[in-house]
Design brief:
Helix content: 25-40%
Number of strands: 18
Strand order of the largest sheet: 12-11-7-10-9-8-17-18
Distance between the termini: 50 Å
CATH class of the largest domain: Alpha Beta
Bound molecules: nicotinamide-adenine-dinucleotide
CATH superfamily of the largest domain: NAD(P)-binding Rossmann-like Domain
Number of helices: 13
CATH architecture of the largest domain: 3-Layer(aba) Sandwich
Radius of gyration: 21 Å
Structural class: alpha/beta
Length: 414
Amino acid sequence: MINKPQVIVIGGGMITEVQILPSLYQLKRIGVISDISVCALNGEPLKRLAESESIKTAFPGFSFRSFPDFTREPLDKPFPDLYKEVLDQADPGSIAFIALPDQLHYNAIKEALGRNLHVITVKPLVLKYKEAREIEELAFKKGLFTGIEYHKRSDDRALMARRHYRSGDFGEFMLGQATMVEPWYYRNSNFQNWCTKENSDMFSYVGCHYIDQVHFITGLLPVEISVYGIINKYPNGKEGYLYTDGRVIWNNGACLNVQNAMGYPDIAPGGNTQGLQMLCRGEKDAGYLFHQDQYRGIKYSLLKKGTQPGDTYYNEPSPDYFKYVEYGGDGLEPVGYGYRSIQKLLNCVNEVNARSDLDGRREIIQKIDQAGILATPANSYYNELVMEAGRLSITNSGKPAVITYGKEPSVKLK
Ligand SMILES: NC(=O)c1ccc[n+]([C@@H]2O[C@H](COP(=O)([O-])OP(=O)(O)OC[C@H]3O[C@@H](n4cnc5c(N)ncnc54)[C@H](O)[C@@H]3O)[C@@H](O)[C@H]2O)c1
């Protein structure tokens, strides 16, 4: 069994640049993984990744294997199936890290599992509950780890809340509000090509983070979803549900309002606005949780403004998700729950790889599933049911969609 797995990242876009590749470089720096390859549809994003100033500053001398080779192929020539050839070459026990648009996750995950590779995927795992179950069963049969990178689960404040809630310190969740609003300039990015009304919406795209977090904290399951969506045009003329208001009813009758949008001002002092509020019921008084997740008490007024969209003179950066800091060595190291989440998932793969027998590998996978700290298909399948219900509701003018659990969980309009 290999000691240090190779990682093949499929998808070289925004999330690969801001979180995945630098996290993998750090894990390579500290000896957790070996080779890193990145596959994209064409060479253009790969060139951007290779030339990223922030990554080069943090990781001088680091590189990835590029598929297609952006130094040789025309940057806009598409290679939609090249990732399969790259997976063919991977050593057993290696990892396919899926960072593709949502609707492409399912096929790529099946291709990877079919070649006996572990899978780590950005959220959402897939768009349909049945696909999630299929992936869970296939991976378990082969003793392969599948993890979903819900990085908010590695935010210490979510872990603190989970411990308090499960110790009974808050009482029972009754009513809550969650917000995640991404910046306006996202409309100019590749989102406009895929996050369109046929494929997705802001509730599906980012609403899932806090729905997952409320389950993560409380253990409750969502049973009814209604989502009202407002359609706006992207700069390329395509249409997306860019403002959504969702209502999630939980299996104890609690209600969470979830507001999402691609509408945080570019000139505002931060990357987005986000947070969670939960009112809980105790015996004689109320329990209460309030997380202001976009703002962590730092205020900067800078003399120079960065060159990236959303960079501002005055800003309020969050040190919690992903930042580069000095560590006393060459370059910089990433810190924050975005890095920790990937590190923990990689550690799971190494734990599974350390066992050469199928039963032993399955035992580790079940242990991770049951611990519930990292998202796996077995412990977070409700997210796919929420996605299905949310899509059903938003495309039916916000009518409620009901999730039924049991042997064959399903979703239907109320
Ligand atoms: N907070 C989070 O957890 C978070 C944040 C952002 C994105 N995401 C998820 O990450 C995924 C990607 O998002 P993004 O913002 O990076 O998107 P993006 O549009 O910036 O990048 C998508 C990438 O996929 C590549 N691609 C498309 N088809 C391909 C193919 N056939 N073969 C190889 N590569 C192909 C494109 O070249 C591009 O590099 C989505 O599922 C999104 O929901 C999660």
